Amino acid sequence: MTGMAGTFRLKFWGTRGSIPSPGSGTLKYGGNTSCLEVRCGNELIIIDAGTGIRGLGIEILKAGPVKASMLFSHMHWDHIQGIPFFQPVYVPGNEFKIYGGRDWGANLESALKCQMQSPNFPVTLEAVNEVGARMEYVDIDAGTIFQIGYTDSITITSVELNHPNKAFGFRIDYGGRSLVYATDTENLPETDGKLAELASGADLLIHDAQYTNEEYYGLDGGGNKINWGHSTPEAAAAAAIASDVKQLVLFHHDPYHKDDLVDQMLQESSAIFPNTIAASEGMVIDLHAFTEQAAPNLKETDTPGLGRSSTSAGL
Description:
19% of the residues lie in helices and 26% in strands. With 315 residues, it is of the alpha/beta class. The strands form two sheets. An eight-stranded mixed beta sheet has the order 6-5-4-3-2-1-14-15. Strands 7-8-9-10-11-12-13 form a seven-stranded mixed beta sheet. It is globular and about 50 Å long.
């Protein structure tokens, strides 16, 4: 595993929610479902395993044996559906420590097994475990604080979010920097206090922003999305203010939203919380570029805080 000690970077491999949405209208922000790569020194953390994890798997195999921690926010299909196509799990010698909720109706291992069985998939997870990578499953409770990585140098804090069937938000603290992953959460009509506490003072908040205000309240004629478990750009901005974070990233873009609509939603959020960007596939953020006062004003060009790198072995 390559990587520089002290590195704290993340790369977005999938930014959509619900279902993949490839096509000319989603080229800017991407069409794969949720997946992030996080590098903390030499440690690799993978957050969620939507279809974006397929590309991540191809890249990390180039660096040799893979050892990684995997955090799953919940078991809805757009967050687990990439596992059958994640090549590193089929390779002997690779190791994955996989964390998911204990009380999700079924544990994470069971959910992954269900999607890899006939008639849904020709190779079972049990068969993969016999000949492929070593996978260890760790069931956690909401509110659990634990150390991960092969040096136990990374602190993870979990909290339950407002989403059907339950979902977790995660805070990652490493080397004096912090990021919070809070997708699939409904922070309306006001920010959930548990999330505000989790994200308090964080360098980076990655927040669900699936629906426009009109869609959420049904003002577009399509029926409201109240209690569907997702937020708006305005709600994400309000959460960023309530949590006093340095940088906000809008995430979990609706599969029906073309790039120009995501652009518009970004403008609406930025009017409330100026230090806002929208997640796009390939986007790289270096948390060590953040100062004590504020994050860089990130743009979709190479900056000290943000790049469009295609290299994942150490980002």
